[in-house]
Amino acid sequence: MRILITGGNGNISKILLKNISNEFDITFITRNEVDLLNELSVSNYLMDKDFDVLIHTAIKGGIRTREETGEVVYENLIMFENLIKYSHKFKLIINFDSGAIYDRSTDIKCRDEPELKTVPKDYYGFSKYLIYKRSFQYNNVVNFRIFNIFHANEESSRFIKSCFIAKKNKTIITIFQDKYFDFVYEDDFVKIVKHYLNHFSENLPKTINISYTKKYKLSEIALMILGDNNLIEIHNSTLTNNYCGNGNLLNHLNLELDGLENSIKKYEKLLNI
User: Fold this and answer.
1) What CATH code is assigned to 2-149+183-210?
2) For the segment 159-214, what is each residue's pLDDT rounded down to a tens digit?
3) What gap in Å lies between CA 10 and CA 80, rounded to an integer?
4) If you write DSSP's letter for every residue of 77-126 in order, what string do you get?
5) Which member of 139, 191, 230, 242 has the lowest number of beta carbons within 10 Å of its beta carbon?
6) Helix-strand-coil percent breakdown of the chain, rounded to 5?
7) For the chain, which residues make up each domain, given as ranges?
8) Per-residue pLDDT tens for 91-150?
9) Cα four-point dihedral sign 236, 242, 244, 246
């Protein structure tokens, strides 16, 4: 199986490179090889190429700490449109969706995949919303709705890794707003990707939340790691602005996923903390 992956320098691409490159014929492209914002660049690259699967990870925006403009919407839509023009060249296209599609200004708690109550107000979420709607015009496009994937090489500021660093240093973890929040470990994420790659001819869900069925608050995850409530400082515990999806569709695939608790144990061994 020949697989083309966009966004070759991103975290998701690096996770896939590490975990599936020995099983599939993988080609990664970055903006240096192909400018996805340029229709001619995409056309020249794909014209004489043969792939079975496209995994589209290239994205603009989505980082909460960075201010965004309408350029995020424009660039995400243009990249998708320039690629989807060649949808006929792929048996399967995996588009990486986001929990932001549910509108992060609202309370997102255990939402079903089609349960889009409001149009997202932020540029990144709005772009994901439009791409999701567009995907229904193509039978070979599936959407993986990601909330948060934690992995070995993530930044030390990310919540789960920062909890382990706090454990090592015996320092306080501050939670400004406690909430239910979805995290999925990279090993389980890879199992889901491989399942779709190996079974895409079957009747798999077109859009699926990358979410475990069991939900945890940030404070519960911190306690799971730190083992000491005295090291956790919560400023607001009202549980507003949760960020988690309903994991039933994923659960019905009957994959042998580790789940959050076992994944955190594996992650701790990996970090050697």
Assistant:
1) 3.40.50.720
2) 999 999 999 999 999 999 999 999 999 999 999 999 999 998 889 999 999 999 99
3) 17
4) HHHHHHHHTTGGG-SEEEEEEEGGGG-TTS-EEEE-TT---S---SHHHH
5) 230
6) 40, 20, 40
7) 2-149+183-210, 151-182+213-271
8) 999 999 999 999 999 999 999 999 999 999 999 999 999 999 999 999 999 999 999 999
9) positive
